[in-house]
Design brief:
Radius of gyration: 19 Å
Strand content: 25-35%
Bound molecules: nicotinamide-adenine-dinucleotide
CATH architecture of the largest domain: 3-Layer(aba) Sandwich
Order of helices and strands: EHHEEEEEEHEHEHEHEEEEHEHHEHEHE
Structural class: alpha/beta
Largest sheet: 8 strands, mixed
CATH class of the largest domain: Alpha Beta
Helix content: 25-40%
Oligomer: single chain
CATH superfamily of the largest domain: NAD(P)-binding Rossmann-like Domain
Number of domains: 2
Amino acid sequence: MIVVGEETCRQIIGRPEAFKAVEAVFAAMASGKAYNFPVIREAIGHADALYGFKSGFDRAGLVLGLKAGGYWPGNEKKGLTNHQSTVFLFDADTGKVKAMVGGNYLTAIRTAAASAISIKYLARKDAKVLGMIGAGFQSAFQVRAALEQRNFEKIIGWNLHPEMLPRLEQTAHEAGVPFEAVDLDRIGAEADVIITITSSFAPILTRAQVKPGTHLACMGTDTKGKQEVESELVAAATLFADEVAQSITIGECQHAMSQGLINQKSVTPIGDVINSEHPGRSTESEITLFDGTGVGLQDLAVASAVVDLAIAKNVAINIEF
Ligand code: NAD
């Protein structure tokens, strides 16, 4: 069995490889060549943790496996990231375990790749202002990946906990882009692309706040009950998702769906746009919304890429198992 630890992942895989792997698997999902198995996610009644499994099979790339892990909100105080996960890959022909890969950094880059893919395909070409709602661990990865998709001239940000905003400021500074902390009205009025990446259980951004032509990447809602934007905003947007089934049950679209404001057919898999089966944005003035719920196949795709890279670079640990 090949073992690739967290630190090695950080050293050998970056944004371009993650983007390519996630884009390919979204395309395979939309054409029916790859599918995710039902997600298991439980509040374990200890340490406030959510724990579960995301798994799937990509027949095109012959990638089979699962990501086990979840969210421990108290970890930051212990010097650890709140998300903890590990990916296991299996040989699709035999079922024998093939690899164990650290999943924390991979989760961040595959999640950032998903919103970056949505910006590539759905944001207006002339987008200049990036709006960030959320300033947690994921947010810096989101900013760096988004900046590669358009010529953003400014980043504006809001966070429920303003003491976390220096993370966004620092990331913007490192990228050489000015940053300003603003209120939600200004995010909606000024940003051409808005990424939401919070643990919110109530709408933060409203329909009235968002200007025409905006692209939203809603990335934080990945569990029943979570919500980042008003249902009316979801209903007013042209909707895309990594996976429609997850979007309407555990993603940002769950609330508009249960209120009868949208139906399953309102949401298009982003893979259809990648495969040129759907035009994506069709007017400069429409609001597009990508619901990035996070699917197991994203994790497996980047884990598989990292195993190939580790073998090629001679840094894979091979253990008898
Ligand atoms: P984190 O704990 O580092 O940061 C949490 C963020 O949410 C901070 O900005 C915090 O201020 C904000 N927040 C917390 N409670 C809030 C509330 N009640 N209302 C509004 N904002 C609140 O977490 P992170 O690692 O940055 O992850 C952020 C979110 O993204 C989590 O909810 C996580 O489950 C989700 N996530 C989704 C995917 C995906 O693929 N869709 C992948 C990774 C993480």
